[in-house]
Design goal:
Alkaline Phosphatase, subunit A; alpha/beta; 14 helices; 397 residues; binds zinc ion; 2 domains; 34% helix; eight-stranded mixed beta sheet
Length: 397
């Protein structure tokens, strides 16, 4: 039996006036995702427990079949795992964005989706000047980097995701609580260091947002969780461009496959991901295919870009994988987003998300298309996200 998870990050949404009351999923042309719902069974999943932050980390941990109440320890440690950064028992790992600050305002949570090379130079300077014994910065991908504090410092600090506070005052969202003074000093000292850097001078000349401030958040201790094989007794692979999912794959003991041209953005290599997934199924039983594009389109409030990301996912990922699975006798496909990222809100919510499961054994229900409303009639009802993997592999929630 082969298992595939088709994960289109943040594709679920609300009814939009701009789309005559339709959601982007309803509006988009998605014959292949509709096929999965029509020939399969569907329902709604609560991927994020009400008392937890509505992040991709919590949601994808759930979908991979881990109860987040038991295993969630922050986004930072997952990205550290992906970057191969070993965390000691008292190390606290923070996601560290490079942001654009302008006149005391959080202008852009991604410094204009700064390139990995440009950001790497900036993080290097920050580490050289602000790094010390117990304070270490590690370069990551685009605007996503890592800060590690030793001695348990900052674990209980209240930090804010920058993408939730675009347009707000920096002063109003600086870290609070335990060890916040250290974090605030690092944030404020990063600006004079970065402002005049040649990377930013070049970006400013090109009219691009500069990366002139660091912003740490989503911290935690090293992850300790059983492997996917220990939980579900099958081997597997993870395909994603973003460190968070790669880190989840590392912590779950999955093979993490890098796809050339996979950017974690609207211009990603959809086809390459689908082909890599089918290749992985030659040797593995399970593959998790994650595509970030629809979520990034939602965070910038771009409806057209979101619809294109959904249609690209349908045509270049779902179609190719459905065609490739015909080579296998027995297979199951789980289709879903990790959470909703409604365009009007430009951020994630706790709302349940639509999911559908297509099986080669032909089990189906009355649902004929895939979107947020059609699945309300799905035979699987509303389920906890972290129970779906057990249903997929063992047939019971
Ligand atoms: Zn997400």
């Amino acid at each position: 039996m082969k298992y595939v998870v088709l994960l289109c990050d943040g594709m679920a949404d609300y009814s939009l006036d701009e789309l005559d009351g339709k959601t982007p999923l309803q509006f988009a042309h998605t014959p292949n995702m509709d096929y999965i719902a029509r020939e399969g069974v569907s329902g709604q999943a609560v991927t994020i427990p009400p008392d937890m932050p509505p992040g991709s980390d919590v949601a994808n941990l759930s979908i991979l079949g881990y109860d987040p109440a038991k295993y969630y320890s922050g986004r930072g440690p997952l990205e550290a795992a992906s970057m191969g950064v070993e965390l000691g028992p008292d190390d606290i790992a923070f996601r560290c964005n490079i942001i654009t600050e302008k006149d005391g305002i959080i202008e852009d949570y991604s410094a204009g989706h700064i390139s990995t090379d440009e950001a790497g130079e900036l993080i290097k300077v920050v580490d050289e000047h602000l790094g010390s014994n117990g304070v270490k910065f590690y370069p990551g991908i685009s605007y996503r980097h890592l800060l590690v504090l030793s001695g348990g410092r900052g674990l209980d600090a209240q930090c804010t995701p920058p993408h939730d506070q675009v347009g707000q005052k920096v002063q109003d969202f600086l870290p609070g609580g335990q060890d916040s003074d250290l974090l605030i000093r690092l944030i404020m000292d990063s600006k004079p260091l970065l402002e005049g850097h040649e990377v930013n001078q070049a970006r400013a000349k090109e009219g691009k947002n500069i990366g002139n401030m660091i912003w740490p958040w989503a911290q935690g201790r090293a992850v300790s969780m059983p492997t996917f094989r220990e939980l579900y007794n099958i081997s597997g692979a993870m395909i994603s461009a973003v460190d968070l999912l790669k880190g989840l794959g590392v912590c779950a003991g999955l093979e993490v496959i890098d796809v050339p041209g996979a950017t974690g953005y609207l211009d990603t290599n959809y086809k390459g991901k689908a082909e890599a997934a089918l290749n992985a199924l030659e040797s593995d039983d399970f593959v998790y295919v994650h595509v970030e594009a629809a979520d990034e389109a939602s965070h910038i409030g771009d409806i057209d870009a979101k619809i294109k990301a959904i249609e690209d996912f349908d045509r270049k990922v779902a179609r190719l994988i459905l065609d490739g699975l015909a080579a296998f006798d027995d297979y199951k496909v789980l289709l879903m987003p990790d959470h909703r990222t409604p365009i009007p809100l430009r951020t994630h919510t706790h709302d349940p998300v639509p999911f559908a499961v297509l099986s080669s054994n032909g089990v189906g229900d009355e649902v004929t298309e895939y979107n947020e409303f059609s699945v309300e009639k799905g035979s699987l009802g509303i389920v906890k996200g972290h129970r779906i993997m057990n249903y997929l592999v063992n047939g019971v929630f």
